Amino acid sequence: MKVLLLKDVHKLGRAGDIKKVADGYGRNYLIPQGLAVLATPGAVRQAEHIRQKAALARQALNQELSGVAEQINGLRLSFAAKAGETGKLYGSITTAMIAEAIKAKVGYEVDRRSIDVQPIRNLGKYHVPVRLTVDLAPTVHVIVHREGEAPEEEEIPETEEALESENEESSNADHLTQ
Q: pTM for the full model?
């Protein structure tokens, strides 16, 4: 079945694209959800108009969410969990738990389905992409540690300002000793 996409569909295509999909996928999901229409000759003529309209909408949404993406990108989330001696968790850290932690820290509610990771079942550090839009996918750093232990924090690289102030202090000390 050939369909004309009306909206961007993750892992399928962008609005205005004509795609060949399985009959059941088109008939039972894409068309009823308003994501696509059958690719009839009349609909195909409208493809370019739909593509332009969707590009403007996508650009506006990307501008709107770019501030949120900057806040989320590089965010460190720490989860305490019970684990066995081998580091395997008794349970798991799910996408819903990650979405809840993002909402608590940033104040923006992220849909759990837009977090691209399988449930985390081991101790360690993970880089988790969060798909806000088709084009925006900031990464969150998730640290899973044992309950009762402090999370292993990565060494934070010193900023240029801190290095400059240290250099100034050492040069001032050199001048005093001379």
A: 0.68
